[in-house]
Amino acid sequence: MKFETLSIHAGQQPDPTTGAVMTPIYQTSTYVQEGVGRHRGYEYSRTANPTRKALEDCLAALESGEYGLAFASGMAATDAVLRLLSPGDHVLAGNDVYGGTYRLFERVLRPYGLDFTYVDASDLSQVKAALRPETRLIWVETPTNPLLGITDIAAVAELAQARPTPPWLAVDNTFATPYIQRPLELGADLVIHSTTKYLGGHSDVVGGAIVVRQQALRDRLAFLQNAVGAVPGPLDCFLVLRGLKTLPVRMDRHYENAQAIAEYLTGQAMVEKVLYPFLDSHPQAELARRQMRNGGGMVSFVVRGGVEVARRIAESTRIFALAESLGGVESLIEIPAAMTHASTADSPIAVDPGLVRLSVGLEHIDDLLADLTQALGESS
Ligand SMILES: Cc1ncc(COP(=O)(O)O)c(C=O)c1O
Predict the structure, then answer these.
(1) In angstroms, rounded to a whole number, what is the distance separating the alpha carbons of residues 313 and 104?
(2) Cβ(177)–Cβ(209) under 8 Å?
(3) 247-379 has which CATH code?
(4) 276 catalytic per annotation
(5) I want to staple 61 with a disulfide (CB 3.0 to 4.6 A). Which of 10, 152, 159, 209 is the partner?
(6) How far is ligand 1, taken at its centre, from the CA of residue 38, in Å?
(7) What is the CATH number of domain 3-245?
(8) Which atom, in ligand 1's list, is nearest to the CA of 340?
(9) Active-site hit among 26, 67, 98, 198
């Protein structure tokens, strides 16, 4: 079946007891057993829940995987992946990862004995040079948050596979979504999502997910999911499932609007640089076009005049709401250095304080362009 059909139907059948077309919110913590240990696949909702199972199966189908695992947040999903490792193991990560990912790696997991190196993952020679015998995991975001850098997933997978003990390749696919890019098809071992973003799509839920193909990986992650217990509630799973049904149409419109905004900003005197994967000026535009179905909904830009001007713009928009997060139907604007990526301040991966990040929503493009025009005008 095609992606658009899977996004509506995968993992879901009409409810066997009532015929309800939409998967019910199974708001229950426990399940009656016919005899000790004799049950219908559900014992306790930390271990498994039917609404969560429908979401997990749908996500697996959309990512061309075999197994999906849902978590209470993107960070909980990331943490579960890192718990596959042992003290002394080394992780090679992109140097432009989400600030919260960097914080988890450096402030929670390094003290537990994991070692991390950050490189520009769009440069394969840097990736190759930083691999060590004890590297067990390569962690990349592509496109990256917030610089929209692109990593060649297939090429990094090939580098990993060439090692005597191949490290796992994990791709945070939050920015692209499986509609735009499917890392498992390109050789990645694990795909991670903050379902809070485009998959949920309506800024009304926090969630995370992992998708894999190998059963051994799935079994270890399912053990961690149950043992650690950072699972999403059934209502949250329902909301993400509902969001997935419109993912393809939303992503096409996010892209149309974002591309138009990236082109508009490119022509503005106040704008020094626009970062958008499908702009011809993007250093990896050719790779982006090969690896991604479209350019996605995120646009970043650096303003002339630095942080003061950037802040004035972010505080002057009327439709673009000044807020963290991304991927909802509504447009958002933020200053990563002061907001989403504040935890990278003074670190080697700190972002330019004059960088503005837009999550371009589904409003009419004329209104969005008019809003940016007035904000740039007021801030000049
Ligand atoms: C690329 C990326 N990965 C992971 C996360 C973390 O997800 P959550 O906020 O759902 O924990 C975020 C959040 O902004 C993100 O942008």
Answers:
(1) 31
(2) no
(3) 3.90.1150.10
(4) no
(5) 10
(6) 39
(7) 3.40.640.10
(8) 14
(9) 98
